[in-house]
Amino acid sequence: MTEIVVRDRVVPRILAVIPAVFVAIAIRVLTLGTPPESLRVVAACVVTLACWTAYRLLTVRVTIGAEDVHVRGVFYDARIGYDDLRTVTHTQPGIAVRALIWGTMQTRAVTLEAAGRIMRPLAMLSFAEDMDIDRAVDAMLVRTGAYRIPAQRQPSESAAASTSST
Length: 166
Known about the structure:
elongated, 166 residues, 8 strands, four-stranded antiparallel β-sheet, 6 helices, 45% helix, alpha+beta, PH-domain like
């Protein structure tokens, strides 16, 4: 069975620009005269964290496999088995993401609820009508059993068909 991989989305790439602003501010602080050593250490830490966050934003992905869903986010890396995955829904993104986007685009997030924790993977953050994300959500719902695929015959119909043929 093939895997469905969701990565290289537009919204996480746009969000990856934000850490660059922090890097520019930190570099500006470092180039103003001779800042104290503590301020240089803080600026170096900001640059490190911002670069790491931008890297993780550019490499976020969700892999929907046969046995589990592998989510690589900015601050976490998780494998969720389908027996642990309770619900998969489309929701509004969190307030932090909405504040970062500032209403420039209408986005929607996907929420995964598993074993008492809720995850909103940034790789699944998309525009309002994104068919690729809809297909990925449908694939997860089918694998978790939330979509009930109808059988060709009901058990009572097959029993009646076998007794009438004898």
